[in-house]
Amino acid sequence: MYLEVTHLDVFYGDIQVLWDVSFFVEEGKIIAIVGSNGAGKTTLMKTISGIKTPKSGEVHFQGQRIDSLPSHEVVNQGIILVPEGRKLFSDMTIEENLLMGAYHRGKDPEVISSLKRMYSLFPILNERRMQKAGSLSGGEQQMLAIGRGLMGNPRLFLIDEMSLGLAPLIVDNLVEIVATINKQGTTVLLVEQDVQLALENSDYAYILETGRVVKEGPSRELLTDPEIKDIYLGM
Fold it and tell me: What is the phi/psi pair of residue 31, to 5°?
């Protein structure tokens, strides 16, 4: 498998947050991890990206074990995280933020081509490229966070709570961009509190509940699952 997570147990101090979590991501797909606030989704993303170290369990990417690697080495493997809350450099311009996303690429001559691609994907960022990131709206900041992540040339793109706090029209635009990125060859792992949004725009999904995977399946099938409809979709 492209990404394989097996039997992860993750703690914050003495408090266990993830219990025996296992799942896999198939190359070229959009995979969703969904669940309510506090389910452990962000902890899972931090563990995959090397920010958190599991107490037990393993993470393999393209056949290589990565759960003991520091986060910068995970980035070098091609795993890029767009964190919850965006975590932009607010006093830096849009363009400076985008270029920071390519920092690990060094003097790669293709960085400028990547920058042009981001401006093509996000025309509003092109128009405001010298504007400070902290002055942008929430939707524009999320576009910039996604663009900054893409500047790292991800093989596996992790997006944590893409839609949180954003207007529906902005979310629709971001969904289209993620679909475009995926069609261009980037595998996406999407973590979402909005279960319907995630299931409608992914190939396969895992339901995370209080730190445990409680259900999985093709996203379209989960959308019609009576239990999912009752608990998460309010139907």
Answer: -110, 135
Buried b (16+ CB within 10 A) or exposed e, 46-81: bbbbbebebeebebbbeeeebbebeeeebbebbbbb
23-63 pLDDT, tens per residue?
999 999 999 999 888 899 999 999 999 999 999 999 999 99
Q: How far is the first Cα of the chain from the last one, in angstroms, to the nearest whole number? A: 34
Residue 225: phi and psi, rounded to 5, are -70, 125
Q: At residue 65, what are phi and psi to the nearest 5 degrees?
A: -75, 130
C-beta separation of 232 from 215 below 8 A: no
- Locate 60 and state its tokens: 């393999």
In CATH terms, is domain 1-78+154-235 a member of 3.40.50.970?
Answer: no
Q: Where are the domains of the chain?
A: 1-78+154-235, 89-153
Q: To 10 degrees, what angle do helices 111-121 and 138-150 make? A: 150
Is the Cα torsion angle 66, 111, 144, 232 positive or negative in sign? negative
Model confidence over 200-225: pLDDT tens digits?
999 999 999 999 999 999 999 999 99
The region, left, alpha or beta by phi > 0 then psi within -120 to 50, assigned to residue 217 is left
pTM tops 0.85, yes or no? yes
